[in-house]
Amino acid sequence: QQMILQDIELQIAHRAGIKVDKGTLDQAISNLAQANHLTKDQLRQALTDQGQSWESFTNDLRDRILVDRLMQQEVENRVHIGPDEVKTFAQQLKEMGGVSFDLQQIFIPLPGNPTPDAVSAARNEAGQVRDRVVAGESFSRLAAQVSSSHDALQGGRIGWIKAGELPPSVTQTLLQLKAGEISPVIPGPTGFHIFKLLDVKHEQPTVTEVKTAMIVLRAGNSLQLQEAEARAQDIQQALQSGTRFSELARHYSQDTSTAGGGGEMGWVAPGQLPDSLERTLITLQPGGVSSPIREGDAIYILHSQAQRQQPVKEKQIMAAARMQLYNRIVHERMDEWQRRIRDSAYVEILESGLRGSDA
């Protein structure tokens, strides 16, 4: 099911004109190699040793970037959170403390505008899947076979997620489980979830700070934008050739407060950058460099040098709350959007079949 959904997403991305240029793909490969403490040549050899061709690997990576950009366009950029929502959620975070869960999930979706029979059928399917897990079948294998979540092909592995990024009903259920246990079937607005709790942490609430460097290219009008985009490609190519980020920042960056120091910003805490930059920065592995990001009247290229967890200060609670609430809403909207495109594709297939039978 997840492979079919990915094919649909790729078709939509191509129809929307979303592309991945060579510089972006090369940077993604470099980031992946860096995250695994390998050079690009060592990464290529490791893939060969595992029986995967370089062409297959780069095609898969390009597809993942395409889908990520589609999600950003269709879901992430359409999430807007009001200050009152953040304030209320910040209070909930204080009460919740620093709880995080390491999770796997299986998601059984509902169709759009489901009838009572459709809801009952999906609930029953989820219950049968849970019974199979409890009886000893592999959670990862079942997730890959039947789940419709975006992480299905990874065995449903979500990884560590803060309690505040989950719906309250899910958090309350997980708090009742021990590591290794399976949740009951949990209803949601778009379907039914089954979670496996791998581990849980109760810690002092923390935020992620990132030691950051940046290159800023001004793009206040159409001519500046064209020049900035061309310069950003030159920078990406130079990075691929081994030029140091600091050297490029000194040469190209138009941010007078950081360019002289090689783009160094020091440790960046939540709330210090615009949301679009902060969300990109937090996803980079240490050593990773972002693709060019348009924000306001400039194009930014970010370099994550290191990460650390720091206790949440009072003034950072609102920023942390905004980020966790944003992540929760994105996950929910992503499920809704994927359900809509899945239903739309099913209707197109039915209509095509009917036209074919009438011919």
UniProtKB/TrEMBL annotation:
The keyword Signal applies. Keywords: Chaperone, Isomerase, Periplasm, Rotamase, Signal. Residues 98-199, 207-306 form the PpiC domain. GO terms for molecular function: peptidyl-prolyl cis-trans isomerase activity. InterPro entries: OMP_Chaperone_SurA (IPR050280), PPIase_dom_sf (IPR046357), PPIase_PpiC (IPR000297), PPIase_PpiC_CS (IPR023058), SurA_N (IPR015391), Trigger_fact/SurA_dom_sf (IPR027304). PROSITE patterns: PPIC_PPIASE_1 (PS01096), PPIC_PPIASE_2 (PS50198). This is SurA domain protein. It comes from Acidithiobacillus ferrivorans.
